[in-house]
Design brief:
Belongs to the aldehyde dehydrogenase family. The chain has 504 residues and is an alpha/beta fold. It folds into two domains: 42-259 and 467-485, Aldehyde Dehydrogenase, Chain A, domain 1; 263-447, Aldehyde Dehydrogenase, Chain A, domain 2. It is built from 15 helices and 23 strands. The structure holds 2-aminohexanedioic acid (UN1).
Length: 504
């Protein structure tokens, strides 16, 4: 697919960065090789971190609204290059065109959010118990932020982290997925253009605020173990998070983990079934089931279960599978053979557990023998066990039945992951019960809308094996800063807190 090289050159990525390296990059669309990227050595990772740390030392003293100006310029470059970057996302990650564009739009949105935030890094003032004293808190930059991202959102996840980290006064070092290094290099090239413009505008030398280190696990490990990386923000599988979390904790670094999901939609008796069907269809089969927020389970009330399943079946069969760059395609390829094999294994497991499975076969093998397309699958399950408890990154929807809402909520919560969840109901009591403390245990709990496609304005992340981190909107920025509590005595006495006396 020569088109990737044209896009890379339009995005100002030097050919030397994307050819001749040991990391082969393939497009999941047809399996063709589209690049060969250099893999960073440990020394190179260390050097990038050292440069990022040096940049941080200066950047932390730049007023936050000025830091916002850099992110504003970056957002402008993203706007100007949206079509090219989005197409590269489609080619490298296999997303359909509108989802590739949506991904770049998320980057633009988070830049806008971060620019506003750069004037709103508020700390509290706190009433002191002592006369003539004042208490307050300040939020200061934390240092180098290491970002580890996954193939399925190859650039947006970096942007959620980087835009906030930069306005907060930090620098970033990015290890993208080894499956999607090209979009990372293109994003970095756009950022460097913004940085050059900013530096010229400010009359200063461009600080080395952002670095990309490509490669496999050892590159991630070098980032994770480095004492100068104050925060490691990692998105990916629970297995990856289990490896990263303790290593960062070992050196008392900070972690922001956004790991697997096993997201469910409860469909209640009063649900608008048209809406529910559409929400489930996009949630389960959009992005070929490769979002951490993908709908993996439907828990349907017995009274509407059969009707819902027949609607889903009808719609599922109409989904057009194919080249994601072609108009009308709704389901693109899986990222690679490993993903297809995992899907087949899960479907075998579902059948062994008594599930009734439709779909799931390989598609378009004759046209694209080196690529891995699959029919979306639906599995009606007798119980929630085995494969249903696992996150399989593929378009498989498990359907379960319930009688009482409490049972549905218990089922929805009875998985190890806790990212996203939803209920379709027109009963306000049910909707509120689902969102209450005793309702969904996930980081995201929606009503009459699916589990995926969250806006950047809210905090994004989840509980349990999802890792507990929150990225993106609301007050997620606080994870990228350190808090200092300041007590100032403006009296001429020295009263101790809690009334303690200590006079000689
Ligand atoms: C992910 O799959 O890693 O809610 C994140 C969504 C997107 C984010 C998905 N905004 O689907």
């Amino acid at each position: 697919m020569t088109h990737a090289s044209q896009l890379l050159s339009a995005l100002n990525v030097p050919a030397s960065q994307t050819t001749g390296g040991s990391l082969q990059v393939r497009s999941p669309i047809d399996g063709a090789q589209i690049g060969a990227v250099h893999e960073a050595t440990k020394q190179e990772v260390d050097a990038a971190i050292a440069r990022a740390h040096e940049a941080f030392l200066a950047w932390r003293n730049v007023p936050a609204p000025k830091r916002g100006e850099l992110v504003r310029l970056f957002g402008m470059h993203l706007r100007q290059n949206k079509a090219e970057l989005a197409r590269l996302v489609s080619i490298e990650a296999g997303k359909i065109t509108s989802e590739g564009e949506g991904e770049v739009q998320e980057m633009i949105d988070i830049c806008d959010f971060a620019v506003g935030l750069s004037r709103q890094l508020y700390g509290l003032t706190i009433a002191s118990e002592r006369p003539g004293h004042r208490m307050m808190e300040q939020w200061h930059p934390i240092g180098v932020v290491g970002i580890i991202s996954a193939f399925n959102f190859p650039v947006a996840v970096w942007a959620w982290n980087a835009a906030l980290a930069l306005v907060c006064g930090n620098s970033v070092v990015w290890k993208p997925s080894e499956k999607t290094p090209l979009t990372a290099l293109a994003t970095q090239a756009l950022f460097e253009r913004a940085l050059a413009e900013f530096s010229q505008q400010q009359g200063m030398a461009a600080p080395a605020l952002s670095h990309v280190v490509n490669g496999k696990a050892p590159v991630g490990e070098a980032l994770v173990d480095h004492p100068s990386v104050a925060l490691v923000s990692a998105t990916g599988s629970t297995r990856m998070g289990r490896a990263v979390g303790p290593r960062v904790a070992q050196r008392f670094g900070r972690c922001l983990l956004e790991l697997g999901g096993n997201n469910a939609i409860i469909v209640a008796p009063t649900a608008d079934l048209d809406l529910a069907t559409r929400g489930i269809l996009f949630g389960a089969y959009g992005t070929a089931g490769q979002r951490c927020t993908t709908t993996r389970r439907v828990i349907a009330h017995a009274s509407i279960h059969d009707e819902l399943v027949s609607r889903l079946e009808r719609a599922r069969k109409q989904l057009r599978i194919g080249n994601p760059l072609e108009n009308g395609t709704l389901v693109g390829p899986l990222i690679d053979k490993g993903a297809f094999d995992a899907m087949q294994k899960a479907l075998r497991g579902a059948r062994e557990q008594g599930g009734k499975v439709t779909g799931g076969d390989r598609a378009l093998e004759a046209q694209m023998p080196q690529a891995w397309y699959a029919e979306p699958a639906l599995a009606q399950m007798p119980a929630q066990s085995g494969v249903v408890l696992e996150e399989t990154f593929a378009p498989i929807l498990y359907v379960l039945k319930y009688e009482k809402l409490d049972d549905a909520i218990a089922l929805q919560n009875a998985v190890p992951q806790g990212l996203s969840s939803a209920i379709f109901t027109n009963d306000v009591r049910e909707a509120e019960a689902f969102m209450a403390a005793s309702g969904s245990d996930c980081g995201i709990a929606n009503v009459n809308i699916g589990t995926s496609g969250a806006e950047i304005g809210g905090a994004f992340g989840g509980e349990k094996e999802t890792g507990g981190g929150r990225e993106s909107g609301s007050d997620a920025w606080k994870a990228y800063m350190r808090r200092t509590t300041n007590t100032v005595n403006y009296s001429s006495a020295l009263p101790l807190a809690q009334g303690v006396k200590f006079d000689v």
